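Internal ticket #5521
Category: modeling
Description: The requester needs a full-assembly model to guide mutagenesis choices. All entity lines are attached below as received. Residue total reported by intake: 198.
Assigned to: D.W.
Attached entities:
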Amino acid sequence: MAPKSEGTAKKVTNKGAWTAEEDRRLSEYIEVHGAKRWKTIAAKSGLNRCGKSCRLRWLNYLRPNIKRGNISDEEEDLILRLHKLLGNRWSLIAGRLPGRTDNEIKNYWNSHLSKKISQKEKPPNKVVPEASPETSPATPQEVVLPAEEGAVKVVGNFLDVDFDTDEFFDFTAEGSYGLEWVNEFLELDEGLSLKEKM
DNA sequence: AACGAAGTCAACCGCTAATTT
DNA sequence: GAAATTAGCGGTTGACTTCGT
């Protein structure tokens, strides 16, 4: 991808793929000044980029402890479970996968998992009338957990989500990606769905 | 070997939410 | 409290790669 910058008198920001030199400049600047005020970072680092672009580059590629590619079976399973639970809340899902970014999860979902699921969902010789919950965007089932500390409440569409975000994003106790949490949640979810069908 | 189709993924865009002035 | 600014999110685009014919 060649940058689409033009040599006009007007201030035109670079677009397209980042060069190694741009990456280096951005990393160096953030190392010294921190990752705040992206507009300022863009201006002061000497990068001919908009703040948004700098932020995205840092978060998705330059940030320390970023994992890239090779999504494990365990991670894939977690993504599937979390997507069932949360819908297209990529940043929340990514928040449960240390080192992974929302963009990567989103891409992985769109290119790998959505197909996998639609194949699984679609029984041979049978037309599925409507998109499955997995493939349709963000239509979480109604799930309400008992009101206790750290409980997650999900009611109807996700406008009424009440997370304990501190716990949700706490990776200090991450063993196997916190799968126990998801398992418990989905068991409850499935229990409720069964009840509804009766 | 050549070509088109399909798949992949980095980056951009538009919008909303949160924060600052 | 209002307006302006900044941060963050999810959807979409488009260049590049891989695959099938």
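Resolution: model delivered.
Comment from assignee: The CA atoms of residues 9 and 48 of chain A lie 14 Å apart.
Ticket closed.
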